[in-house]
Every structure is written in structure tokens, then in C-alpha cells.
Design goal:
By secondary structure, the protein is α+β, with helices and mostly antiparallel strands. The protein has two domains: 190 residues, no CATH class; 199 residues, no CATH class. The protein is built from 14 helices and twelve strands. It has a six-stranded mixed β-barrel with strand order 3-4-9-6-8-7. A two-stranded antiparallel ribbon has the order 2-10. β3 and β4 form a beta hairpin. α2 packs antiparallel against α14.
């Protein structure tokens, strides 16, 4: 019966006939569904593109895995434990890191910063050298301690890579009692000289981070040679490495991959994408309900055909199914056309950059980024077909056989 109903519905839709108002409304309804479907594909793909772009930025600075203590700011890493981790086949490199908030002073300006003390492995584990915008990456030159500042941070404090004056770095003393008579005696102070600036194009780093040598940070914070706040790991197999590392270290440590290190940011991206998808689905629902009027008029126009089918033995349920399938086919054709058009637009945008972000150098990229994901295409397809079925269900169920 479904095959018979589908044949009749297909014939009503594509048989040679006069082009009347009903067919115009049906065509407009199908086009409306196609336009919204194409918009959903394009908008979701652009949001994916921005997500991938930001992820690439973070991946140049964030390690594959980051190990921190579950309790406390620091933990002790013995050489034997480090050797055990390096012996794991999933682990390529390990880099020790100490992070702490500090106050820097340069000439007449003061500013709080996120001090990041790193060892010599850090530039091999990250792409920090490719992020340098001025000067060079260097945290120690053999005679002096050096620092690499976020580009915005350097601009705010008024310093550049070629300045010869040093930066004073202050942190509260770790063990001494507070001296109310001499407030300056409550702080440890070290001096370093700027070697360069870097830019991740993320405010979190560019405006706050100051990279210095690990030993410099240990002296400043009064840490011993085994105390660190984070262990950075380079690995090609993050999930497998997490399991192996946890077996070595135990359950007292947090082991975060790149997504988990920026969990709040990526959660916001997912929420924005979800809200956008819901809004577009609501617009799509309105577009699919355009077929209600077209299908209702078609049912009125086909009263004689309905009576004829009834005399030939067709049940009311079969006739309702015919018009249900016809309305659904109209929306489905619009959806298929919209998906094809949306994918073509995304392909052109990806390779030709048709839609620009703006003129000038204030943007990181010149055109809107695009990343088409199969799950999004599948979700849009299922959503359109489901909403189309719901929208045509009401008029189709009202189709009754008139009895004389």
C-alpha cells in the first residue's frame, strides 16, 4: 500500500498538468525549506570553522596533555618518576612548568602577570617559536635571565624586544612573616630582560602570560628542584597516554588533553552552536508549515480524485497516506536541494573565500572559515525530514472521504 500511495503522490507532483496557484505555492514552500536548509548547513559549518581555527591557535601553545595535582598548587616530581613516564611508548617529551601570579615593574608602570617558568624542552613540545612576533624566544642567554611576553602585555607595559632596561618581577615571600613596617621586605624580587614577544591571538595568553626560565621562577618562588605546578606531555596518542600515565602516577593527578585544558571556551562554543541550531530549527519549522496551506488546497482540488479512489476501494487511511507522502516529498526535495546548495556554497567559501570578514589587517583571517562536518549534515537532514513529516501530518489527517 505504501508503494501504491507513493506512486499516486509522485504522479500528483510531477504529472503533466496546468501550472496553477497550488503548484506555485507548493514550489515556493519547497524553495523556502531549501533556503533554510542551506542556511543551516552554511552557518553550522562556519561555526565549526571558527572552532577549528581557535583550536589550531591553542594547539600551538597548549601541550597534548597537561598534568596537575588534584589538591594544592604544586607537586613534587622525582627523577625516577620522570624516567618512568619517559619510558612509556606513548610519551615523546616531558616539560616541567611552574605557573604563578606575579607583579612586574618596568620604569613607571606596574602590572600583574601570569608568570610561566619553563625548561629547555618547552620550545620542542610547543610551537612557541612560530608564535614570536618580535625578537626571539629565549629565557636564558648564559649571563642574564630573559623573558618572552604576550604581545598585548608588552604593549600595555610599554616594552619591546630591543629594550635594554630590565623588568623587575615581584612575588610574596613564601615562608617569612609579614613585615608591616617594611612592606617591600615581604616580596622576593628578580630582574630579567625581554627577549621577544609572542601572539597566540587569544586574550588569555597575549594579555597575561610572561614566559621565563624554570630556575628563575624557582628562585623567585622559593621552590626546590623537584617542585612544579604542571608537567607538560607531548604524545601522538592522548587517550592511550592518559591511561598509561595514570597507572604510573596514580589517581592524585589531573590529566587534561587540549580540549579539557580549554574546557570553558569549548563549552561556550558548543552552547553557541546548540542555540544557533535551535533557532534555525525554529525558522525551519515555520518554513515547513508553508506546506500546510499548499497541501490543504491540493486536497480540495483533488476531491474528485479522492471520490474516484474511494469507489475503486481505497480506504480513507490510504488516501491520507497519499497526501501525507506528497507533502513530505515536497519538503524533502527542498531539503535535498538545500543541502546540495549549502555544500556547494561551503566548498566555494573554503577554496575561494567569497564572503570576507572585512578589509585591513585587524582580522586574523580574511574570509569566514568553513568546516563541513558529516554529523551536522546528518543532523540537518534528519531535522528537516522530521519537521516536514510533522507539518504535513495535520492537513493529511483531515482528508476525509465524502459519502453521498
Amino acid at each position: 500500500m505504501v508503494k501504491f500511495a507513493l506512486k499516486i503522490a509522485w504522479r500528483y507532483l510531477f504529472a503533466k498538468k496546468n501550472f496553477n496557484a497550488i503548484h506555485v505555492i507548493t514550489t515556493i514552500s519547497s524553495i523556502a525549506v531549501g533556503v533554510v536548509t542551506a542556511a543551516m548547513i552554511c552557518i553550522l559549518s562556519v561555526m565549526n570553522g571558527f572552532g577549528v581555527m581557535v583550536e589550531d591557535m591553542f594547539s600551538q601553545f597548549d601541550p597534548d596533555l597537561r598534568i596537575t595535582a588534584k589538591t594544592g598548587k604544586t607537586f613534587h616530581l622525582s627523577q625516577s618518576t620522570k624516567d618512568s613516564l619517559l619510558a612509556l611508548p606513548e610519551v615523546n617529551l616531558l616539560s616541567e612548568c611552574i605557573e604563578e601570579t606575579a607583579l612586574i615593574h618596568f620604569e613607571d608602570k606596574q602590572m600583574p602577570v601570569q608568570l610561566m617558568g619553563v625548561d629547555s624542552i618547552f620550545p620542542e613540545l610547543t610551537s612557541i617559536n612560530s608564535l614570536i612576533t618580535d625578537g626571539e624566544y629565549q629565557v636564558h642567554d648564559g649571563a642574564f635571565d630573559r623573558a618572552v611576553l604576550g604581545q598585548i602585555l608588552a604593549w600595555k607595559i610599554g616594552i619591546g624586544a630591543h629594550f635594554i632596561n630590565g623588568i623587575q618581577v615581584y612575588v610574596p615571600k613564601r615562608y617569612s612573616r609579614v613585615n608591616m613596617m617594611r612592606p617591600d621586605a615581604n616580596f622576593n624580587m628578580e630582574t630579567c630582560f625581554i627577549a621577544g614577544t609572542f601572539a597566540v591571538n587569544q586574550q588569555k595568553y597575549d594579555e597575561n602570560v610572561m614566559i621565563v626560565d624554570l630556575d628563575f621562577t624557582r628562585r623567585l618562588l622559593e621552590y626546590d628542584s623537584t617542585e612544579i605546578s604542571a608537567l607538560l606531555v607531548s604524545t601522538p596518542h592522548t587517550e592511550k597516554a592518559k591511561k598509561s600515565i595514570r597507572q604510573v602516577l596514580g589517581n592524585g593527578y589531573n590529566i587534561h588533553n587540549r580540549y579539557e585544558q580549554q574546557e570553558n571556551f569549548f563549552r561556550i562554543l558548543r552552547i553557541e552552536k546548540l542555540l544557533t541550531a535551535i533557532l534555525l530549527a525554529f525558522i525551519l519549522l515555520i518554513a515547513t508549515f508553508n506546506s500546510v496551506g499548499a497541501l490543504s488546497m491540493l486536497i480540495i482540488d483533488k476531491k474528485n480524485d479522492i471520490r474516484t479512489l474511494s469507489h475503486l476501494g481505497a480506504s480513507e487511511r490510504l488516501i491520507q497516506r497519499i497526501f501525507l507522502l506528497e507533502g513530505w516529498i515536497v519538503n524533502a526535495l527542498g531539503a535535498i536541494g538545500g543541502i546540495i546548495v549549502g555544500l556547494i556554497i561551503c566548498l566555494l567559501q573554503e577554496h575561494l573565500g567569497l564572503l570576507k570578514l572585512g578589509s585591513g589587517s585587524e582580522y586574523i583571517i580574511s574570509a569566514y572559515p568553513v568546516d563541513v562536518q558529516g554529523w551536522d549534515v546528518l543532523l540537518v537532514t534528519v531535522t528537516v525530514l522530521a519537521l516536514s513529516l510533522i507539518s504535513v501530518w495535520i492537513p493529511a489527517k483531515k482528508c476525509k472521504i465524502e459519502k453521498k
